């Protein structure tokens, strides 16, 4: 709950920053770096909270209250800063071009991503339903009785989370690269650096690359 309260205000700021960035890109073809870093930080904070909570339920370690990278936290996210962005794409990519992605992600997260990016009350509903929510509940029941997270479920859930985060970054105007129709399951995000301090992925897409989980509580 403390994180959700903070995220409510952070996502309100995220929307405002996105509006400013929209006009900046339209005029200059650049996303102001300070605004970009702030919005990446909001996505990063949200991902850590959802990895801890019902977006993955994959760690017992409480998420830190920070927008910055936390190298030793088990969930990581980064988006490579684009030096230039298309003025034309900024007008259509977040709604028209992203519609097929919204349909798929809606199945994964029950429409929560659309609410998180375009809605009226923050990011609280992200991962609140859909296939991810159902499988996380199943995983939680298994963990409750066995103390272990089923690896196939973890890999599948992580793949859907990665897909949703890529669409979130694209819809938030952080990249011109269209999200791939690909479910990258488990391990390190393909094409990215391992989850440790280092340069961001050169691909321009968000990296969500937690290591495979140990048994919860260990």
Unreliable runs:
112-127, 194-203, 211-218
**Per DSSP, what share of the residues sits in E-state strands of 2 or more residues?**
under 5%
Radius of gyration: 16 Å
Instruction: Describe the strand arrangement of the main beta sheet, using strand numbers.
Output: 1-2
Structural class: mainly alpha
N-to-C terminal Cα separation, in Å? 24 Å
H/E series, N to C?
HHEHHHHHE
Shape: globular
Instruction: Tell me the number of helical segments per DSSP (H or I, 4 or more residues long).
Output: 7
Most strands sheet: 2 strands, antiparallel
Mean pLDDT value: 84
The number of strands is 2
Helix content: 40-55%
What is the number of independent domains?
A: 1
Describe the protein:
The chain has one domain. 50% of the residues lie in helices and 2% in strands. A two-stranded antiparallel sheet has the order 1-2. The protein is globular. It is an all-alpha fold and 218 residues long. Helix 1 (2-28) packs antiparallel against helix 2, helix 4 (99-109) packs parallel to helix 6 and helix 6 (130-146) runs antiparallel to helix 7. It is built from seven helices and two strands; from the N terminus they run H-H-E-H-H-H-H-H-E.
């Amino acid at each position: 709950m403390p994180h959700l309260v903070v995220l409510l205000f952070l996502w309100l700021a995220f929307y405002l920053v996105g509006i400013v960035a929209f006009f900046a890109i339209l005029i200059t073809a650049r996303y102001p770096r300070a605004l970009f870093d702030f919005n990446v930080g909001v996505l990063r904070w949200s991902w850590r909270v959802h990895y801890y909570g019902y977006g993955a339920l994959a760690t017992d370690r409480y998420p830190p209250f920070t927008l910055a990278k936390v190298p030793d936290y088990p969930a990581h996210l980064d988006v490579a800063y684009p030096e230039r962005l298309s003025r034309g794409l900024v007008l259509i990519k977040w709604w028209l071009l992203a519609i097929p992605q919204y349909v798929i992600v809606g199945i994964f997260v029950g429409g929560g991503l659309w609410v998180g990016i375009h809605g009226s009350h923050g990011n609280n509903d992200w991962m609140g339903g859909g296939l991810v929510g159902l499988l996380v509940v199943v995983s939680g029941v298994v963990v409750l009785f066995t103390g272990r997270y089923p690896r196939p479920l973890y890999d599948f859930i992580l793949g859907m989370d990665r897909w949703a985060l890529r669409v979130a970054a694209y819809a938030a105007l952080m990249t011109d690269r269209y999200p791939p129709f690909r479910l990258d399951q488990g391990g390190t995000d393909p094409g990215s650096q391992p989850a440790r301090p280092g340069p961001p992925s050169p691909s321009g897409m968000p990296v969500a690359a937690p290591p495979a989980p140990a048994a919860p509580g260990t």
